[in-house]
Amino acid sequence: MEHIGKCGASSEDFLLKKFSISRTTLNTLQDNKFLFRQSLDVRHLTAPEGVWTLKQKAKSLQVKGSYMTGEPTRNEIPTLLYLEESLEVIRTKYKIVGEVSERKIKGQKAREANIPAPAHNFTAGITPEGAEARLAIMHGEAPDYRIVYKQSEDAPIQTLNIEIHGCYYGVQLRDKIEAFMKEPHPTLWIVPQSRRVAAHVQKFVDLYGTSKIMVKHIDDLKDLQP
Questions:
Q1: CA-CA distance, 138 to 69, in Å (whole number)?
Q2: Which residues pair with 101 in a beta bridge?
Q3: How many domains does the structure of the chain reveal?
Q4: How confident is the model at residue 28, as a pLDDT?
Q5: For the residues of the chain, what is the DSSP string, one character each?
Q6: CA 171 → CA 28, 135, 177, distances in Å?
Q7: In the predicted model, is pLDDT for residue 17 greater than 50?
Q8: Same-domain check for residues 208 and 156
Q9: Domain co-membership, 20 together with 57
Q10: Mind listing the pLDDT tens digit for each residue in 119-175?
Q11: Has residue 121 been placed in a domain?
Q12: Which of 46, 119, 134, 203 is the most buried (most CB within 10 A)?
């Protein structure tokens, strides 16, 4: 449950392989309202895949700060599943001491802008101006994930942003690159689509001459050098 909570969503195949558990165990957790399963075709694979997320009962048993804020939307799930697979490799390269989801990154941006956090809804209970500013942050550019890591036990703490996806073009691609260049931390941009898409993103990053963005196809993460 901790793994699913940190990632936001998990594929059934990944859970069965990584944790050597049975579908019966997963079904029991679902029957007891700890987990929720959907059959989705969000990644356009050969067949729909089982996707597991946390129910509120499971979240209440754990430290709130360990988890993604709220339930993932259908649009977020493909990114979260690719993130799950990517982090499995990244953890072999980095000694990770902290992890932050996109929603929490945007929440931090809101706090830094002195916009109060609503109790439930993203814009409920605050002024119209505050709601507008908060929505601008929600719909603005932010990395999908952030890790805090050390290269060795005695090394200083460093921060790395992670972006998952590559199908951006024109103004949207430009805005993402420019937003990541303004970030105080470097960004690892992981492209799970084809290598042609990864080359397209790399081409536009190169136009900016920045060293703050590193583009990697998801299959090349094994060659990642921290």
A1: 13
A2: 145
A3: 2
A4: 94
A5: -HHHHHHS-EEHHHHHHHH---HHHHHHHHHTTSEEEEEE-TT--SS-EEEEEE-HHHHTTS-GGGS-SSPPPTTTHHHHHHHHHHHHHHHHHSEEEEEEEHHHHHHHHHHHTTPPPPSSSSSTTS-HHHHHHHHHHHHS---SEEEEEESSTTSPPEEEEEEE-----HHHHHHHHHHHHHSSS-EEEEE-S-HHHHHHHHHHHHHHT-SSEEEEEGGGGGG---
A6: 47, 20, 10
A7: yes
A8: yes
A9: yes
A10: 444 445 555 555 555 555 455 578 999 999 988 888 899 999 999 988 888 999 999
A11: no
A12: 134
Spell 185-215 as b/e; 16+ CB within 10 A means b. Answer: eebbbbbbeeeebbebbbebbeeeeeebbbb
Q: What is the pTM of this model?
A: 0.81
The total of other beta-carbon atoms located within 10 Å of residue 220's CB is 14
Q: What is the strand order of the sheet 145-150 is part of?
A: 95-101, 145-150, 158-164, 187-191, 213-217
Q: Are 10 and 83 in contact (CB under 8 A)?
A: no
Structure tokens at 216: 């990697």
* Tokens matching residue 144: 């999908």
CATH number, domain of 49, equals 1.10.10.10
CA–CA gap between residue 67 and residue 216 (Å, rounded): 26
Residue 167 and residue 98 share a domain:
yes
Q: With respect to residue 18, please indicate whether it lies within any of the assigned structural domains.
A: yes
Do 183 and 223 belong to one domain? Answer: yes
112 pLDDT more than 90: no
Tokens of 90: 């990244």
